[in-house]
Design a protein that fits this description.
This is ATP-dependent zinc metalloprotease FtsH. Its EC number is 3.4.24.-. Keywords: ATP-binding, Hydrolase, Metalloprotease, Nucleotide-binding, Protease. It is an enzyme of class 3 (hydrolase). The chain is an alpha/beta fold and 433 residues long. It has 15 helices and 17 strands. 39% of the residues are buried. It binds adenosine-5'-diphosphate (ADP).
C-alpha cells in the first residue's frame, strides 16, 4: 500500500488553472516517494486525480495542498477542508468518453475537437470527474468523464481517442465562477465566505450552537468591482443554487406582479436550498421610505422584509444585496435579522489590478512583450469590469491585426494557428480606445 498523507486544501494560483495540478510540499513528496508529474489520488467526499508539483515557498511546512476549484469540486471538498492523498500508477488513456453538461452545444465542429484534444492533453482524469474547457467564442463548457479505457485513473495524450456524447446526465449549467476568478478582494472574499459559506455548508454546527447565521449581507461599492462575481463564486463553490434578482427590473417589468415575483423567488430558494438570492441594485427596490417613492416600491419593501423575517432557516438561504448607493437603502432593511452584515467593495489598487489582469489574460495567448505589471500601473482608476473589457478589446485588436495575414484559401493548420499571439501593442491600442 502506498503511503497516504492528509492535507488541508487551499486554492490554486491563477497561473495553475487548467493544469490539473496538486501542489504540495517537497518534503511530503519525498515521504510519499513521488516525483514531479506523478499522479496522486485525492480523496475527499469524492475521489479524483491530479499531477503532483512542489508548492510555492510561502506554503512550505504547512501541510497544505493547493488545488484549483474544478479539482476541489471533483474531490468533493472546499477550501480549508482535508483530503487524503496517495500515489497511484499512471496509465495512458486509449479512449476517453465525455458528456457535455450543456446539451445545446454542438460538437460536430472539427475545430472544437482539435481544441479539446489540445487542452486535455497531459491531464490526468478518472470516471466521474468534471472538466472545465474554454471553447472558442463560448464561455466555459463543462464535461463529465463518463468512460475511460483502460479503467481507473488515466492520462490523456495525443493518441487518446476522445468521444463526446450527450446523455441524460447533461444539464444546463449556465455560469459558474470560482474564487480564483475574483482578483484583489482577498479580505472581502474571506469575510463573505465566513458569513455565507460556513452556514451554508455546516448548518448543523450553527443549529447545535444555537448561533444565528446571517440572513442578509449587503455589498456596496461602485459598479463593476466584482460584487456579482463574488456572490456567484460563493454559490458555485458551495454548490448552492443562485437566484439573480435585478432590482429595477423587479420594480418596472412586472408592474403589479412585483410582490408575487419576489415571493416566488423566495419559495424557489427554499425549495432548492442551500441557495443564495442575489439582489442587484437593491436600492431600486428598497429606497429610503422617507424619499418620495411609489406604491409599488412600498409594497415590495414590505414584502421583502416579511419574507426575510420569515426565513426560519439557519443559513440555508442567504440574501445578498448589492448597491452602489448604500445611503439610499431603507434603514429598515439594515436592522438585525435582515441585512445586518455589510461589506464594502472598493476599486482595486495596483496590486489588485495586477491580479485581475492575470485572471483575465490567463486563457489568452499573449506573447512575451505583454508586461502585466506595466498594464496594472497604466490602468489606474479601472475597476474589474473595465479590465475585463480592456483584455477582450486587446484580443479583438489582435484578431483584426492578424486576420489579413491569414491565407483562408487553405485549411488552417494547427502549427500556423499556434503562431497567433496577442502582444503589448494590442493592449496599448485597447487602452487608447
Ligand atoms: P458588480 O456586480 O460589482 O457591478 P460584476 O461582478 O458584475 O460587478 O463585474 C462584471 C465583470 O467584471 C465580472 O464578470 C468580471 O469579468 C469582471 N470583474 C469585476 N470585478 C472583478 C474582480 N475583482 N476580479 C476579476 N474580475 C472582475
Amino acid at each position: 500500500m502506498e503511503k497516504a498523507i492528509s492535507f488541508r486544501v487551499a486554492d490554486a494560483m491563477p497561473e495553475d488553472v487548467g493544469q490539473g495540478y496538486i501542489r504540495i510540499d517537497n518534503a511530503d513528496m519525498e515521504k510519499m516517494e513521488v516525483i514531479i508529474g506523478d499522479i496522486l489520488e485525492i480523496q475527499g467526499r469524492k475521489t479524483t486525480v491530479a499531477k503532483v508539483v512542489p508548492c510555492f515557498s510561502q506554503y512550505k511546512n504547512q501541510n497544505i495542498a493547493q488545488m484549483e476549484s474544478i479539482i476541489r469540486e471533483n474531490a468533493g471538498v472546499g477550501i480549508d477542508e482535508r483530503v487524503t492523498v496517495r500515489k497511484i500508477a499512471r496509465q495512458p488513456a486509449q479512449t476517453l468518453v465525455l458528456s457535455p453538461l450543456d446539451v445545446t452545444i454542438d460538437f460536430s465542429d472539427a475545430q472544437d475537437s482539435k481544441h479539446l484534444e489540445r487542452v486535455l492533453n497531459g491531464l490526468p482524469m478518472i470516471i466521474g470527474d468534471r472538466l472545465k474547457v474554454n471553447l472558442a467564442g463560448a464561455r466555459s463548457q463543462y464535461f463529465t468523464v463518463i468512460g475511460t479505457a483502460p479503467q481507473g485513473a488515466v492520462i490523456v495524450n495525443a493518441a487518446t481517442e476522445i468521444k463526446v456524447t450527450k446523455t441524460d446526465a447533461s444539464e444546463d449549467r449556465s455560469f459558474r465562477a470560482s474564487y480564483e476568478d475574483v482578483g484583489g478582494l482577498d479580505k472581502e472574499l474571506q469575510r463573505i465566505r465566513e458569513m455565507v459559506e460556513l452556514p451554508l455548508k455546516y448548518p448543523e454546527i450553527f443549529r447545535q450552537l444555537g448561533v444565528e447565521a446571517p440572513k442578509g449581507v449587503l455589498l456596496y461599492g461602485p459598479p463593476g468591482t466584482g460584487k456579482t462575481l463574488m456572490a456567484r463564486a460563493v454559490s458555485s463553490e458551495t454548490n448552492a443554487a443562485f437566484l439573480h434578482v435585478n432590482g429595477p427590473e423587479i420594480i418596472n417589468k412586472f408592474y403589479g406582479e412585483s410582490e408575487a415575483r419576489i415571493r416566488e423567488i423566495f419559495e424557489t430558494a427554499q425549495r432548492r436550498a442551500p441557495a443564495i438570492i442575489f439582489i442587484d441594485e437593491i436600492d431600486a427596490i428598497a429606497p429610503k421610505r422617507t424619499e418620495v417613492i411609489g406604491d409599488v416600491e412600498k409594497r415590495v419593501v414590505a414584502q421583502l422584509l416579511a419574507l426575510m423575517d420569515g426565513l426560519k432557516n439557519r443559513g440555508q438561504v442567504v440574501v445578498i444585496g448589492a448597491t452602489n448607493v448604500p445611503d439610499m437603502v431603507d434603514p429598515a432593511l439594515r436592522r438585525p435579522g435582515r441585512f445586518d452584515r455589510e461589506l464594502s467593495i472598493n476599486p482595486p489598487d495596483r496590486f489588485g489590478r495586477l491580479k485581475i489582469l492575470k485572471i483575465h489574460t490567463r486563457l489568452m495567448t499573449i506573447d512575451s512583450s505583454v508586461n502585466i505589471e506595466k498594464l496594472a500601473q497604466m490602468t489606474h482608476g479601472f475597476v474589474g469590469a473595465d479590465i475585463a473589457i480592456l483584455c477582450k478589446e486587446a484580443g479583438m485588436n489582435a484578431v483584426r491585426r492578424l486576420l489579413p495575414e491569414i491565407d483562408f484559401s487553405e485549411e488552417l493548420r494547427e502549427e500556423d494557428l499556434a503562431k497567433l499571439t496577442i502582444n503589448m501593442n494590442d493592449f496599448f491600442a485597447a487602452f487608447r480606445e
